[in-house]
């Protein structure tokens, strides 16, 4: 009888329970090799806008990021890479990196981390003529809990 009482009163492990939601404003820029002519496409600067909800009883620290970009490739364990500016194919783009994720995201228990802007520099070329790309973002916290969301990023000239 005492064992049953102890088992009934034993707490279940506290964990975070993550949920990702797409927000407006995700975009990508086709990066060039610099200002040398002729310019060569060198990769993508991708900034994804998401909100992260933690429905669990334990705070979460998001430290892991993986991407799957349709018709471009998979990128495991990528790091956020905020930039002040990016050389595009036709112009230099000034970026306001204030408020972008630098490395990790703290999400308190039973709270929302709204409108996170997560930037990535990818060494892969976007499909020719694609004005938008579809991505799957997977985030993982320090305890191994993860969540994913599909995001559409619009090309910025």
Could you name the ranges where pLDDT drops below 50 across 5 or more consecutive residues?
A: none
CATH class bucket: Mainly Beta
Q: Do you know the CATH topology?
A: Immunoglobulin-like
The structure class reads mainly beta
Distance between the termini: 71 Å
SS field, number of helical segments: 1
User: Residue-averaged pLDDT, rounded?
Assistant: 91
The beta-strand count equals 11
Could you say which overall geometry the principal axes of the C-alpha atoms support?
A: elongated
Helix content: under 10%
- Give the percentage of residues in beta strands: over 45%
Q: Architecture, according to CATH?
A: Sandwich
- Main β-sheet description: 9 strands, mixed
The number of domains: 1
| CA radius of gyration | 19 Å
SSE string, helix = H, strand = E? Answer: HEEEEEEEEEEE
Q: How would you explain this protein's 3D organization?
A:
- With 157 residues, the protein is mainly beta.
- It has one domain: Sandwich (Immunoglobulin-like), CATH 2.60.40.
- The chain is 5% helix and 50% strand.
- The strands form two sheets. Strands 1, 2, 3, 4, 5, 8, 9, 10 and 11 form a nine-stranded mixed beta sheet that branches.
- A hairpin with a 4-residue loop joins strand 6 and strand 7.
- It starts with a helix and ends with a strand.
């Amino acid at each position: 009888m005492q064992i049953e009482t102890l088992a009934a009163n034993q707490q279940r492990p506290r964990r975070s329970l993550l949920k990702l939601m797409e927000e407006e404003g995700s975009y990508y820029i086709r990066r060039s090799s610099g200002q040398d002519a002729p310019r060569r496409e060198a990769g993508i600067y991708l900034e994804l806008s998401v909100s992260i909800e933690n429905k669990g009883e334990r705070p979460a620290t998001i430290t892991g990021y993986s991407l799957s970009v349709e018709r471009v490739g998979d990128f495991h364990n990528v790091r956020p890479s905020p930039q002040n500016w990016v050389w595009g194919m036709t112009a230099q783009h000034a970026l306001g990196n204030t408020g972008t994720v630098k490395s990790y995201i703290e999400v308190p228990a039973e709270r929302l981390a709204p409108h996170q802007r997560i930037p990535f520099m990818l060494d892969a070329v976007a499909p020719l003529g694609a004005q938008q790309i579809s991505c799957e973002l997977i985030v993982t916290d320090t305890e191994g809990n993860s969540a994913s969301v599909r995001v559409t990023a619009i090309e910025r000239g």
